[in-house]
Amino acid sequence: MAYEKCADVSEQFWQELSRLEPEAVSRRTGATYAQDRYYLPFFKGQLMVDPEQRQILVVGDEERDPGFRVCLTALHYLLYMDPNALGGPISPLELSGGATFFRGHHGLPQGPLENRYGQDLQAFLAAGVRLQGEVRRAGDAALAFQVFPGLAVEVILWQGDEEFPAQVTFTVPAHLDRFWHLDAVWGLLNLVAQELLGAAPLAPD
């Protein structure tokens, strides 16, 4: 079964969210709560999360389905995350069990980013600006994204040349696996790659 739409997210997560005290969720995560809805910063924009209607929308673009990855990751954040306890950046492979988990079907999503940006640092940085990423000093270029409040993912790019192929690596908070299973971390990284590719300038002819 292909999971593509917000409606494909398991009802279990909505049921869990409905049982939580909204004020406690807001204090823990940094989301705001008004008119029975959560408002959650997401990259450069904001998500509206409606537990009663089982609905997540992008504020200002309400006609578009945000997609399965956005909705699942947002619910995981509201349900389980404490951004004040995430720690500093490390490679996802350094998370407990990460070196084994992030391979094969669950391999890190660097390939499409290497293909699109490996020879085009300026396009990589331009896409980062569109998503309000923070430029970091690492590799040939690096961008850090606040996906949700306090939850930063860094994407580091080494440009390809005649001798070495392009390479992309990621960092995530060191204690992310205290709050999420590794499959949720994998989903987060795929979401970041998806957003970064979607923000790419048009490639020259």
Description:
It is a single chain. The strands form two sheets. The chain has a five-stranded antiparallel beta sheet with strand order 5-9-8-7-6. A four-stranded antiparallel beta sheet has the order 1-2-3-4. The model has no long low-confidence stretch (mean pLDDT 95). 34% of the residues are buried. Helix content is 34%, strand content 23%. By secondary structure, the protein is α+β, with helices and mostly antiparallel strands. It contains seven helices and nine strands. The protein has helices at residues 11-19, 22-29, 68-80, 98-101, 110-117, 121-130, 182-198; strands at 32-34, 37-42, 45-50, 55-58, 89-90, 134-136, 141-148, 151-158, 167-173. It has two domains: 6-80, no CATH class; 89-198, TATA-Binding Protein (2-Layer Sandwich), CATH 3.30.310.
Short overview:
With 205 residues, the protein is an alpha+beta fold.
Low-confidence parts lasting 5 or more residues at pLDDT below 50? none
> Which strand order spans the largest sheet, edge to edge or round the barrel?
5-9-8-7-6
The global form is: globular
Helix and strand run: HHEEEEHEHHHEEEEH
- Number of DSSP-assigned strands: 9
How far is the N terminus from the C terminus?
Answer: 36 Å
Q: How many DSSP helices?
A: 7
CATH class wording of the largest domain: Alpha Beta
Considering DSSP H and I runs of 4 or more, what fraction of the residues is helical? 25-40%
SS strand fraction: 15-25%
Whole-number mean pLDDT: 95
List its salient traits.
205 residues, 2 domains, alpha+beta, TATA-Binding Protein, globular, five-stranded antiparallel sheet
